[in-house]
Amino acid sequence: MTPPQKPLGMSDFFALEAGEYLERLDALLGSESPSADELVRLARALRGSALMANQQAIARAAAGLEALMRAVRENRRAWDPQVRQLAVRGVDDLKKFVRQASAWTEADTARAEELAQELEQVAGRPSAQVRAAEALGLDAGVRAFVAREGAAIASALDRASQTLKANPAAPDPLQLVLRTLLPLRGLAAVSDLPPLPDLLEGIERAIGEVSQSGLEPRGSVDELFKTAALAIARAAREVAERGRPDPESADFRQFAGRLVKFMESGPDVVSIGSLYYNDSGPHIVSRGVPAARPSTLGRLELVSHGEHLRQAADSLERAPSTTQRELRAHTLGTTFRALANAGGGALADRVAQFATAAREAVASGVAVSSASGFAALLRQAGDLLARSSAGDEDALAAELDGLTTAVRTLKPGAPPPPPAPSATAPRAPTAPPPAPFRPHPPSPAPVTPAPAVDTPDLVGSWSAYQRMAEAGIGAPSLQELLTPATRVPAAPPSPRAAPPPSGDAGAVDVRTLLYRGDRALKRAEELREAAKQASGDALRALVDEVCDLVALALEPSSSPSP
């Protein structure tokens, strides 16, 4: 009978996996022109497998082999016989290390470190561009991912351009482009690779305009997407080769110019009368009803728009190139359009006027040529709208009038304006601060309270306490409570306290506030009814109070003498 096979352990699995990688490396090195990308990929996979198996010395040697293969791929080392021989010897030594992994010694660690240093020495130091990219977290894998996804986006854009040229109303290719954008949009490192973020956002905005209008795409939309395909293909290629794209490349400038013209151009508007035949009619028999004005912007919506304007101002100032600054300024058109259509109320009307002035500044180019001044005004408007949730609407509207005038008078190249003072309404004289709390407030004139009938519960006890507090009582003192036979002012009652005699405005003995005798039994009956509807901690608290009342019921109900 064959005994059951022993399951593979971590070292056995590592030996199988690493052996497969090394065999494939050996086969590639034996070919005439091996693929540098495949050599780097296999060396990286071998290093990762060693790290997972906690074989640090083997991973160190595999990292040296990966560095050599990367140097060949980046053309820092020529693929000559010397480099090939060194790579072959490195693979052979790694095979020996893998076989020796189960019986590893310190001598093996020293030999692995020696091999890694030799491989890295021949590989040389990476170029400055590659080092800068790796400092941003863009290793060879990330750059390869950007290049691959960028090529896929460029291909989808090119197909969409050809389809739209043949059939401008076809929506399918645009949806395919949106799905292709997702992997690259989800990469966090893209934000450090301008102009890729602006390029991807511009493509999405153009697709949104074409898809949401419901009309046939206006202008040369196919040329716009064709230019976008060239721009993103070039940016992805520069990331793979140099680690960073050129934010002022000719392809990106051309795409930005086409996108700005596309966003500024509206659908052709013609008179309804021109659609009829040139005859005697009748043509237009009744005047149309104008579109209803959008509803008034609420305070929360104004605050949200204010936060967006502040973020847009920061983005406009941080744009590393003129082309990106122009593109980011024109992408604010959607926000300004929504604010310009707002109405209802003094502040909402002033917001609409400010948005109209800002749109004119973007269209005239002042927002780009005087980006710092325009951004400062946007930030001040955002701060104002952020205060609209609690501020005076008329005062904020007057302050926004000044910002609207400043936007309309903004000159190209003007420095940022100083922060505008708040044009708020004159305030009333500040009231003196309230007097500090005194334990012994001055007693008002004696007022005899009206006789009141207090209920025998917590509400009655509290009302009696408030009545005595209004009549004036001394400061609370623990010493007074501890002194026997001392008459102290009534304190806030406990749940087991009975109300004091009605109409008593003076000091009472604290012991008279306790339930005793028949009153304690009556209170226990009340708690019994309450316990029928209680549970958990509330029920346990009621049981504890009933136990205390039983002891008090045994005492006489007469009050102690003072």
User: Helix/strand-derived class?
Assistant: mainly alpha
Please estimate the helix content.
55-70%
What's the order of the H and E elements? Answer: HHHHHHHHHHHHHHHHHHHHHH
Shape: flat
- The poorly predicted ranges are 422-431, 433-450, 485-498, 500-506, 558-562
Distance between the termini: 102 Å
Q: How many H/I helical runs?
A: 22
Number of strands: 0
- The overall pLDDT average reads 75
Largest sheet: none
Rg, rounded, reads 41 Å
The portion of residues forming beta strands comes to under 5%
What's this, in brief?
Helix content is 60%, strand content 0%. It contains 22 helices and no strands.
Explain what the structure shows:
With 562 residues, this protein is mainly alpha-helical. Helices cover 60% and strands 0% of the residues. It is built from 22 helices and no strands. It has helices at residues 10-29, 36-52, 56-73, 81-99, 106-123, 128-135, 140-166, 172-185, 196-213, 221-242, 250-264, 299-318, 322-330, 333-340, 346-364, 366-369, 371-386, 393-408, 458-471, 478-482, 517-531, 536-553. α2 (36-52) runs antiparallel to α3 and α21 (517-531) runs antiparallel to α22. The radius of gyration is 41 Å and the shape is flat.
